[in-house]
Amino acid sequence: MNHPSLKTPESVMHHALQLAAQGAGFVEPNPMVGAVVVDDNLQLLGEGYHHRFGGPHAEVHALKQAGERARGATLYVTLEPCCHQGKTPPCTAAILAAGIKRVVVAALDPFPAVAGQGVAQLRAAGVSVETGLLEQEAIELTAPFRTLIQHQRPFVIAKWAMSLDGKLAAHTGISKWISNPASRTIVHQLRGRMDGILVGIGTVLADDPLLTARPAGPRLASRIVLDSQARLPLTSQLVRTAAQTPVLVFVTPTAPAERIMALQAAGVEVIPVAANFRGHPDLAECLRELGRRRLTNLLVEGGSAVLGEFFDRQSIDEVQIFIAPLLIGGQGASSPLGGQGLTSPEFATRLGNLQVADVEGDLYVQGRMIRRADPA
Length: 376
What we know:
Shape: elongated
Structural class: alpha/beta
Largest sheet: 9 strands, mixed
Number of strands: 14
Oligomer: single chain
Order of helices and strands: HEEHEHEHEHHEHEHEHEHEHEHEEE
């Protein structure tokens, strides 16, 4: 099984990372993992990735493909092999049974039942184990999983479409359509691998969105509304489709009981949380509840006030922004990030892992947030 691009250890691990990425949207709340078995000359003997939650792990797929050739070979894997019985048997047992003599691991697993114990178990059995090859790339790939494990909340992706002069909508509130059809196709693909899609009640009242992926993706995202007073209309598209796609509404203690009961009777799940100083549902409490439900990826689609609150409390992990070659103007037209904002540009958040693409005239910007510290 020849693979011409596998010429260095780095290229083998890079290939494993590419394999791992194919599990996006299928494996959550598990991490995306890829594995490659090679001989001493880096000839490919077997490869695999974690296909779906509850299914065999990447190592099992790669070892099965390699078969007897795995004996005495090297296994490259993007995340530390598990050493505990979960939905599937421990991968360390499969590695030892296959006769692998050497394992190269990109990054350790933060899950408490593994967390270095997988590597230790393999070494104790006489397997040579090396760690850290393309570690940063592996950590970035598994950022949603790591956020859920380490912070008990979903990985938050903020998405918006805006004009070149930074407007989400005209001063009238009309926002359809700023981005072009090709950009909207990308948004639907993004929605299709999310566990939740969140907006504020203002967006629902203004746009009556459906918040589904069309066509459907590998995941069915819960539609989530921050709605302090339970104002979500019973006639809205969200409520009318609640039987097909879950709708969660976070309300505050002052929400009228009759409104809550009406939404519940219509099939909406209403979740009371504490109010913040603005009287809105407390984001920290909302995110903890979503983490408790094992939501791994959360797409925040706005509007300006909601995006601003997420930004102010440093709860955005990644941004996906579509910038249309349009000028809208208007002092009263909203910009993407409302809220309190920063005290000075010197404290501005910078983006890492920046990717910029032309999508049929729209500028598509993706980046991970580099944490800031605003002393004010």
